[in-house]
Q: What sequence folds into this?
């Protein structure tokens, strides 16, 4: 995450405008004049400038000096270029052309490989020396989102044969024109320690196991589909990954701790009805069991570690946390304020409307002393105060927690100390549930508290793989690598960062503790990228379409054969169509390649197919495919209108009247063409034909 900070800083100063007088002064302070910068940009980027208005600005950041050049036209668009005022190097470039049409998700005219060649040629021309010092980083989904008009390419800086992710070159190429639409570099001068006299990779792995390590724990898997329940999964995971100093072996832990993610998506929303639905009746019945506002207020006042004397209650609300519902109970939330000595103070507090437990409070921090003064309470004393309070208000829950750490840094932010306790279930960590409590070291006052505790069932810890087996799976799939990283001195915020050489294990997912399967943060199996290697499609009329869909992940590469002439089953067509309608990295998505039920659930929810039409292993006829494709286009209701469609296929008499609209639409859009004047409605669709029609589906300007 931190590696993007320099990129953001770069954008701030690369495009910062200054007053004209500053530009005039810059002429004398830079090696490259404004005139030279303009000539460099026009020559290297092929900018004519004709028909554009032109403006320029100059910006500086430490020793970095940049000319910002802009050509603007209401009809032609905008071209922006930044040129290093000392070296004459183009450090950023972007172009925008106005259009009245939004970009639509379509299969691009050019492949990623064709665009990649353009990106590489561009970099070799614009910044050849820097380009030689990079390696390409291939993203998880290399073709990018359907809704992205550009292919993106990232080239990471390499120093002494070691990656430096904070620096790199970035290029975007239009999928349908092969024009470079934007480029920028993030490249700074640092002193890099040489990889000499460092610990070995084996030693780094040993330190990782001893000081960071995998832990048997529960992961919270949030619902992906409507009516699906929250559940827990027993996994091995790393809940605080961190780099290891390659010279000293010291673990550089993050300044702040963030609980292990679960992952969630919103389920489809149903339509409201005037009459009470069973769900609405259930909610009404549940609400009758909630404690009253007055009772919740009484609990809050009795549970808070300070008095509310003088505070005025400004608001009260009863709500459900939509992120976790129904894994959490509804909550009463209150807000008080106080005006004293021309200052305003506030208190927020929340109470569980079912259990009556205080779940959260926060108050204005007062009486903060000067940084240079010594706090009255030590970290140990504050921890004792915190634990005594937690034992009073939530004894049973606190008993089932494990102290994680004190996450504030007294050298950087001495005003507050935050303590974190992670939930345990039968001795196994459940880090998605936790308690955090913050105290003022000058007064000993508790200033905030948060209880994050879900209502879920926990899988019994039975038949799990051993820790050694989990480590083998992890290290067989993820390498302990040397990286250069930026190290910020938080004691001196204004000091520039230094480069450190570290070992890092780039793993932030899970290992299923029962099966050993590698999982992502959503609890789904991690599928590694694989190139299209089908051996039975060369020379096939649909070869290009098959390869394209395989690269997009719509066709899964399992084995080396696609069987293009084989009839496609309904379940496989539904699977491919759903992945076409909904890109494979969107959620919700199935948990495995064989999870056909989830694909059917999605298809039925999108009205692509009716529940009674489900017949997984049957071959899909061309007529059935036409109906599903038209429904996927969300115009099935139009196809159902009688007597407004006509078709001219020679076999139109073989097409039922209620299906004529579907055939008319699908053939009119050139998605399914037929041959020799025939549509062949009852002929089974082959796997090659399925690939071709799905590519044409994506080419439709929806």
A:
């Amino acid at each position: 995450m931190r590696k993007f900070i320099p990129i953001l800083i770069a954008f701030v100063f690369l495009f910062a405008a200054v007053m004209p007088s500053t530009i005039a002064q810059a002429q004398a302070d830079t090696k490259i004049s404004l005139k030279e910068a303009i000539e460099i940009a026009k020559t290297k980027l092929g900018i004519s400038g004709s028909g554009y208005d032109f403006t320029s600005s100059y910006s500086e950041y430490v020793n970095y000096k940049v000319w910002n050049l802009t050509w603007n036209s209401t009809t032609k668009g905008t071209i922006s270029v930044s040129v290093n005022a000392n070296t004459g190097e183009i450090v950023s470039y972007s172009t925008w052309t106005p259009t009245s049409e939004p970009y639509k998700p379509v299969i691009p005219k050019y492949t990623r490989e064709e665009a990649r060649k353009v990106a590489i040629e561009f970099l070799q021309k614009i910044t050849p020396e820097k380009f030689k010092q990079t390696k390409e980083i291939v993203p998880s989904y290399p073709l990018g989102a359907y809704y992205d008009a550009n292919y993106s390419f990232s080239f990471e800086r390499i120093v002494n044969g070691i990656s430096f992710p904070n620096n790199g070159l970035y290029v975007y190429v239009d999928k349908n024109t092969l024009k470079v639409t934007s480029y920028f570099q993030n490249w700074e001068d640092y002193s890099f320690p040489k990889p000499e006299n460092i610990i070995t990779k084996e030693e780094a792995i040993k330190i990782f196991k001893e000081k960071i390590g995998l832990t048997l724990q529960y992961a919270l898997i949030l619902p992906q589909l409507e009516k699906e329940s929250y559940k827990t999964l027993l996994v091995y995971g790393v809940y605080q990954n961190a780099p290891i100093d390659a010279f000293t072996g010291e673990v550089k832990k993050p300044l702040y701790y963030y609980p292990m993610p679960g992952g969630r998506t919103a389920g489809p929303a149903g339509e409201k009805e005037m009459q009470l639905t069973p769900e609405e009746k259930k909610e009404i019945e549940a609400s009758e069991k909630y404690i009253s506002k007055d009772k919740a207020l009484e609990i809050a006042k009795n549970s808070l570690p300070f008095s509310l004397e003088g505070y005025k209650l400004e608001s009260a609300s009863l709500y459900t946390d939509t992120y976790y519902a129904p894994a959490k109970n509804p909550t009463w939330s209150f807000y008080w304020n106080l005006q004293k000595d021309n200052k305003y103070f506030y208190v927020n507090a929340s109470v569980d409307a079912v259990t009556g437990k205080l779940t959260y409070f926060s108050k204005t921090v007062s009486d903060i002393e000067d940084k240079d003064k010594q706090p009255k309470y030590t970290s140990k004393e504050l921890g004792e105060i915190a634990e005594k309070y937690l034992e009073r208000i939530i004894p049973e829950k606190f008993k089932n927690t494990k102290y994680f750490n004190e996450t504030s840094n007294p050298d950087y932010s001495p005003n507050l100390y935050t303590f974190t306790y992670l939930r345990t279930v039968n001795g196994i960590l459940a880090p998605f549930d936790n308690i955090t409590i913050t105290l003022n070291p000058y007064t000993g006052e508790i200033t905030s508290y948060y209880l994050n505790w879900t209502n879920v069932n926990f899988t019994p810890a039975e038949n799990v793989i051993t820790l050694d087996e989990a480590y083998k799976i992890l290290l067989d799939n993820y390498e302990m690598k040397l990286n250069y990283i930026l190290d910020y001195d938080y004691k001196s915020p204004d000091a520039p960062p230094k480069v450190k050489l570290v070992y890092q294990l780039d793993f932030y997912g899970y290992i299923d503790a029962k099966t050993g399967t590698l999982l992502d943060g959503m609890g789904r199996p991690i599928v590694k990228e694989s190139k299209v290697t089908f051996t039975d499609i060369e020379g096939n009329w649909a070869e290009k379409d098959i390869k394209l869909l395989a690269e997009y992940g719509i066709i899964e590469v399992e084995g080396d054969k696609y069987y293009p002439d084989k009839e496609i089953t309904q379940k496989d067509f539904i699977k491919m169509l759903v992945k076409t309608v909904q890109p494979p990295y969107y959620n919700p998505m199935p948990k495995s390649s064989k999870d056909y039920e989830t694909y059917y659930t999605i298809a039925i929810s999108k009205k692509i197919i009716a529940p009674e039409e489900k017949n997984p292993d049957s071959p899909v006829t061309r007529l059935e495919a036409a109906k599903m494709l038209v429904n996927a286009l969300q115009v099935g209701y139009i196809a159902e209108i009688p007597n407004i469609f006509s078709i001219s296929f020679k076999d139109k008499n073989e097409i039922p009247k209620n299906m004529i609209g579907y055939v008319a639409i699908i053939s009119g859009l050139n998605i399914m063409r037929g041959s020799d004047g025939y549509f062949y409605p009852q002929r089974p669709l082959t796997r090659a034909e399925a690939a071709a029609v799905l590519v044409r589906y994506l080419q439709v300007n929806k």
User: Anything to note?
Assistant: The two ends are 36 Å apart (CA to CA). The chain has 18 helices and 23 strands. Residues 4-186 form a domain with the Nuclear Transport Factor 2; Chain: A, fold (CATH 3.10.450.40). The longest strand covers residues 162-174.
